[in-house]
Write a structure and sequence with these properties.
The protein is α+β, with helices and mostly antiparallel strands. About 20% of the residues lie in helices and about 40% in strands. The strands form 3 sheets. The protein has a 6-stranded antiparallel beta sheet with strand order 7-6-17-14-9-10, covered by helices on one side. A 6-stranded antiparallel beta sheet has the order 13-12-11-8-15-16, with no helix packed on it.
Amino acid sequence: MPKAAIISKPQKPELCEILAQLLQWFGERGYECVLDPESAGYLDRGHEAVERPEMPGHNPEICVTLGGDGTLLSAARAFAYTETPILGCNLGSLGFLTEVPLAELFTTLEAWKNGTAFIDSRSMMHAELLRHNQAPREWLALNDVVLAKGAIARMGEFMVELDGEFVARFRADGVIVATPTGSTAYTLAADGPILIPSLDAMVLTAICPHLLTIRPIVVPGTSEIAVTVDVVPHETYLTVDGQEAVELLLNDRIRCRRSERRVNLLRLRSNGIFNVLRAKLSWGEQ
């Protein structure tokens, strides 16, 4: 029996009804649904829950996320080593990645079944934390990797290298390394540039740097960006897609490069990045 994975945002009471309709839709077409703990909890089927990292092992033909961009980012990392398309249904307020509104959920699913849906393939980034005498820790990110301080208002000091060549050393609240997809996330709020999602590139943006000359840098996707923590205040963290976090120590080194893995986002149609920017941020309006 073919399977479909469903991943839901917590604390969304309206999902009880939506999930029931979704399971009925898949059931009528001969699909078995694999539910993450949140989805299973809404339906009082906790005993059937499958943790998100384990869902790809069930070989679903599609993954449906119900929530916002954070829910989709979690699914993207879970399914990064598969070709499973992800349909992100937007139940939040912004939703750059979860472009499918609830009103178009079942229409998009029908288009997927008919083979007429649009697949938006997005590149991912591989990040590696190197710490003295410890095995490297690795992550995949669809949006960004961020080095940033916690609650204490003290700047860190960071050294940046590109393909082994020294770029700069500066004090700042943090550093963001983003994919083209992530260029409309945290780095946009830090005055970084907007990159077209199809570009083979990465962007490095300092967060509130203590130098007027430090500006965001766009580098080829074939490059390797390395950021070393030279001075670290208490509670400075490395975060991946705003979800996975590890506290940083002095002399920690983070290496970022384009991953060979990609995420396939399912759309009813190709909206185009500028249509999304106008709809979500009123971009370019007078």
